[in-house]
Amino acid sequence: MSLFKIYVCVKHVPDSAATITVLGSDRIDANVTFLINPYDEHALTEAARIRQQHAPAEVVAVCLGPSAAENTLRSAMAMGADRSILVVTPQDHDSIFTARALKSAIAQDGEPGIILTGKEAIDTEGMQTLFRLAANFGLPAATNVVKLQLQDAAALVECEKESGAVDVIRMGLPCVVGAGKGLNTPRYPTFPEIVKSRKKEVKKIDVAALGIARPASRVEIIELKPAVENRAPRALTGSAAEIARQIAAILKEEARVI
Amino acid sequence: MDKKYDAIIIGAGVIGCPIAYELAKKGYKTLTVDKLADAGEGSTAGSCAIVRAHYSTVDGVAMAYEGFKYWLDWRNYLGNVKDEKGLAKFMNTGSVLLKSKGHDWRKVKRNYDVVGVKYEEWGLDKIKMQIPVYDLHEFWPVKRPEDPSFFDDPTNLLEGAIFCPEGGYVNDPVLSAHNIMRAAETKGAEFMFKVEVTGIRSQNGKVQGITLKDGRRFDAPIVVNVAGPHSFKINQMAEGVWQGCNIKTKSLRHEVMHCPSPEGYDYLNDGYHTSDGDLGIYYRPEVGNMFLIGSEDPKCDRQEWVDPDAFYAGQGGRGRDNQLSEAQWKAQCYRLGRRVPSLQVPNQPKGVCDLYDCSDDWIPIYDKSDLGGFYMAVGTSGNQYKNAPVVGHMMAELIDTCEKGLDHDKKPLQYKLPHIGRLIDVGFFSRKREINRSSSFSVNG
Fold it and tell me: Taking each helix axis from N to C terminus, what angle separates B58-72 and B388-403, rounded to the nearest 10 degrees?
């Protein structure tokens, strides 16, 4: 039986808890902690689950990023990836170029059984790369996936829509799946797994070596402006029971978290 | 006209509040001022609030053990005060000191015997039975994950542990300071928040009072510096005080990590506070079934001394609720990961970053000063939270006896710990002392 290859595309992003400072007009102060994109953690956790159920299989993490992104790939391997590929680039790229680079790196490595990634990156929030990657391969794609089952050379997925509705989709394999938060609880590595990941391979490819065709037009960042957070505190009054009711109503109707 | 008090306390943290409380109980009309919005919101809020008795000196053990008696009887200590926020809870998990090369546990054991601290000696089987998730290998010496030998397989086993059943931690350090403030208020103590001290006034070698940033002045013949990480700045404002201290204080950036407990292990309810000198960390349960992981400041870790005003303003490193460093996150979590191999370490650091008010030898200064009427309870170095009620009582005694004529520098106050009856030489905490070489020079005290 041939090896079922599960590729997981991951991005090296600033920690969401970091204070982002804009330098000049179009870049951020990179002197903050960079981590694996949190949505990609769900993709990795799912990939590890699929590997168990569809042996023989391997999980390969793929990243386009600076040399420092090796750290993110080490995290990916500690979370279960068997090996990884880093396409090294000194600069940021738009989703058109990123998808081409990821496609090229994956195609050079092997034939994907399935490709997983986070539904978006928390830095650019573009939500395009996974679709462009699927298009480059000519594969079907689904995003914000909260349930994934592989059966009979197809993927049965449930995608959560903004309205709260759920689409149930059947896609032939291979396909591209954008992991949503509801897909699973990320399984973080234990110390022995971290030790093992240190010995796993990170294959580095210079982006220039992939010979990616420059797209005719591209997205450029002209200006970055820090988001201004306007807090609008309001005091709730009344008895404890009334306040509790008001809080429940706010959480339900405004924040929509319960 | 300037408003007059008998004593002004600078800092409404967990040490400042009990000093106000005890002075008020003695009949002093006190005012406590703080830069922040409420009691305990400064570095107290970042405290791990551990209540343990293992210290390297007999007096250190005695003071901590005396502190237990307050935490175990919190409601009574507070005079059954009603606090609208509720009362802080002492989580009596018991305290495990792993026998390792990282702690002089034999000395601790001797000190326990001298003071009469209740304890049990646990062999490896007993530890394994009580805490099945621990790997009891020896990992000494403490290393950083950047050092490849950090990942070496261990060969030796630890010797065992000393278990102190009365130890634990306080679930909400901010609330504990707030509780003491409410208790102090019932005795007439006043508190003023969101005010910053910019001057300590004095005349003819005697302190006169404080001046605030908004220009208001308050007079008192007694001023007590309990300003936590800002303590050295307050000392510098008072005539001759900084210069008169042989031991100085400064502020140290410190990170505490929160890492989820392994799957299937209810650390919150079944876990123990543990001091693990073998790995240079200590840990205790935290809300959400988390491990709270503190550092025992091993020599291989870099110390970052910072200006407290710049730190809290978010310059050159972020404030309490802000960013932890990834390198330290890995160092502390991976160290615990050696002891608890089933621990899962998330990629994103979570925890608390705050400041220690640290003295040159990591032993606090509880003393008068070279300026008449100016006292200090400073340099608490991340290890005095548990002693706060004891320090409140002891400082009130020190202030009262000095004001009544005691020359504490020549004939140091011998303070009797009310619960355990032992005498403490308060001169041990003198600003004039030479650096105490028997100190651990760490949070262990």
Answer: 110
Only one residue has tokens 């899962």, namely: B344
Residue B30 CB neighbour total at 10 angstroms: 26
Domains and CATH numbers, chain B: 3-50+172-249+360-429 (3.50.50.60)
Smallest Cα–Cα separation from B188: which of B79, B76, B75? B79
Q: What proportion of chain B, given as a percentage, has pLDDT over 90?
A: 90
Helix axes B58-72, B105-115, angle to 10 degrees: 60
B242-266: pLDDT as tens digits? 999 999 999 999 999 999 999 999 9
Q: Which residue of A15, A41, A191 is in closest CB contact with B338? A: A191
- Scan for tokens 């210290």, then name that residue: B55
Give B349's contacts in chain A (Cβ within 8 Å). Answer: 15, 17, 33
- Does the CA dihedral B230-B236-B240-B242 come out positive or negative? positive
Q: Is the pLDDT of residue B1 over 70?
A: no
Domain A4-210 sits in CATH at 3.40.50.620
Using pLDDT thresholds of 50, 70 and 90, give the confidence band for residue B28.
very high
A189 chain-B contacts, CB cut-off 8 A: 344-345
- Could you tell me if B262 and B78 are in contact, meaning their C-beta atoms sit under 8 angstroms apart? no
Helix (H, G, I), strand (E, B) or coil at B62: helix
CA B285 to CA A192: how far, in whole Å? Answer: 22
- Residue B348 to residue A186, Cβ atoms within 8 A: no
What angle, rounded to 10 degrees, do the helices at B173-186 and B388-403 form? Answer: 40
User: B149-197 pLDDT, tens per residue?
Assistant: 999 999 999 999 999 999 999 999 999 999 999 999 999 999 999 999 9
- For residue A62, the one-letter residue type is V
Q: CB within 8 A of B207, min separation 6: which ones?
A: B200, B201, B220, B221, B222, B223, B238, B371, B372, B373, B374
Residue A245, token pair as written in the block: 């009711």
- Angle between helix axes B16-25 and B388-403 (nearest 10 degrees) is 50
Contacts of B261 in chain A (CB under 8 A): none
Q: Which residues of chain A have pLDDT under 50?
A: none
pLDDT digits over B61-93, tens only?
Answer: 999 999 999 999 999 999 999 999 999 999 999
> A with B: how many residue pairs have Cβ under 8 Å apart?
58
